[in-house]
Amino acid sequence: MNDTNDIFNAEFSRQYDVSNQRLKEISDNLHLLISLLLRDFPTDSRVLCVGVGTGTEIVRLAKEHPTWRFTGVDPSPDMLAVCAEKLKREGLIERCELIVGHVDDVQPQSKFDVALCLLVAHFIQHPRRGGLYQHIADRLKPNGQLIAAEIAGDMQDPTFNGQLKNWVALQQAFTQRPRDIEEVKAELNRRLLLLAPRRTEALFLDAGFASSMQFFQSLLIHAWQARKSAE
């Protein structure tokens, strides 16, 4: 995994939600669709949130499903501190367990109905990314579901620069400063590893998911629903 400790520090964590307000329309659309996909899960569902960050997905789903329970795991103690404060403020902390670490730090006998891994996987170098999905699958019940979102794209594809141009426009709106295409491409190469969407779908299958369906795309942000085998 790339070293991101210099990114997810205390200052960054405190400003994270404020900064993301600029992308609220995209985030709201993604979370609306996630709520739709999970609408019929049992009232006693257990949800694993991998790379939970400041807990946005927990807050949204916990308010919609007052009897669901959540486990959030994240390697950044600063992000989890902000998450815990938010959950206490919203009156949700009693239904949540927060773990500093990675998904393999969650007990494998803890079986979940749903796992969410939102905008996390692109920080993990392939082929270790497949290990992430395997660890998630190991902690899901048979027929459990994964909702995964990541920045994805084939940087070797001749059309990628056209996609990147639109991504740069989004970045300019996000940072409120001019961005150069080559600067953004270098940043992607330094901080992230983009995989073509078809490669991510292959990793789901390799990890034991019986099927996957892409349900969302906003420029380079892609999201899938994957179902674990019934075993």
From TrEMBL:
GO MF, one example: methyltransferase activity
Residue intervals of the Polyketide synthase-like methyltransferase domain: 23-229
Pfam families: Methyltransf_25 (PF13649)
InterPro entries in alphabetical order: MeTfrase_dom, Methyltransf_25, Methyltransf_Superfamily
GO BP of this protein: methylation
Key words of the record: Methyltransferase, Transferase
Full protein name: Class I SAM-dependent methyltransferase
